[in-house]
Amino acid sequence: MRNLVAGEARKALTGHIWWYLPLAGAWLCLISTFGYVSGGEKAIASGSTALAVGQDVARAWMMMFLLASVFGAVAVTRDYGSGTMTRSVLLAGSRTRLFSAKLIVATAAGALFGVLAAALGTASVYLAPGAFGFEAAVDGETALILFGVFVCCTLAGPWGALVGWIARNQTVAVVTLLLLTLLVDPGLQRIVPEAAQYLLTIAMSSIYRDVKPDLLSLPMAYAVTAAWLTAAFFVARRLVRTRDIA
User: Fold this and answer.
1) What is the dihedral of CA 84, 88, 91, 94, to 10 degrees?
2) What's the whole-number mean pLDDT along residues 114-124?
3) Contact (Cβ atoms closer than 8 angstroms) between residue 157 and residue 104
4) In angstroms, rounded to a whole number, what is the distance separating the alpha carbons of residues 89 and 96?
5) What is the torsional sign of CA 170, 172, 173, 174?
């Protein structure tokens, strides 16, 4: 199994996507960071605090989990797109072994996205405010936010892989992840907030300690996230075992 996982990891790192996605994620997060710190002085003058601005900057790095999920989806669907899925199954020895190996690789990739997001988020919290004329302020809550960002990225990797196994098409999988994260879930949160708190990406908002109203408690958010991943796991595994693999 170790050699199979190593082979899938090398396959996932083939091409440019392994550095395009982290770079795109960092760029998006830096844009959000700029928005928070550029208006930091005005926010502080209006009654906010440097500490609150720093926490917003830390939360800005949650967007990296979207790119982690896309990476997981691409790691699975690229075999379908290139027509090599059948050969991959034969080399793996079984569909279940390949399914597990790709899930392990996607989870490890998600963790790496999380480490990158937490590291760059920490640097942004400490360095960005000084560029706009006010001092950085950090507390334990800031650290918990960054830890939550890391957790969300780690969980997003296998989530993307499972969506990829279900969709079996790279475009469909990526578009599904983008729509759910950027449009559907936030839209439902505005329309039916009490129900939307049980959606995956909204539950993750509690994990990175968002301040929006109508969010789940942290233990419940972990439970809901686990439920979504478990449901996706069983659906994806069943489809992998019963559908034509080509």
Assistant:
1) -140
2) 96
3) no
4) 9
5) positive
Look at 3 and 62; give whichever has higher pLDDT.
62
Quick check: 86 and 170 in contact, CB under 8 A?
Answer: no
Average pLDDT, integer, range 102-125: 96
Instruction: Give the per-residue pLDDT at 21.
Output: 95
Amino acid at 62: M
Query: On the CB side of 40, how many CA atoms lie within 13 Å of its CA?
Result: 26
Give the up-direction half-sphere exposure of residue 242: CA atoms within 13 A in the CB hemisphere.
7
pLDDT, one tens digit per residue, over 141-189 is 999 999 999 999 999 999 999 999 999 999 999 999 999 999 999 999 9
Q: Per mean pLDDT, which range of 63-77, 83-97, 149-163 is the poorest?
A: 83-97
Q: Which two tokens stand for residue 121?
A: 């988020």
**3-state secondary structure string, 53-102?**
HHHHHHHHHHHHHHHHHHHHHHHHHHHHHHCCHHHHHHHHCCHHHHHHHH
Tokens of residue 3, six digits: 């050699």
For the record, the structure tokens of 242 come out as 């019963």
Q: How far apart are CA 130 and CA 218, in angstroms?
A: 32
pLDDT above 70 (res 45): no
Q: How far apart are CA 11 and CA 67, in angstroms?
A: 18
Please determine, for residue 43, whether its predicted confidence score (pLDDT) is greater than 80: no
What are the angstrom distances between the C-alpha of 132 and each of 39, 54, 114, 137, 173?
Answer: 9, 12, 27, 14, 40
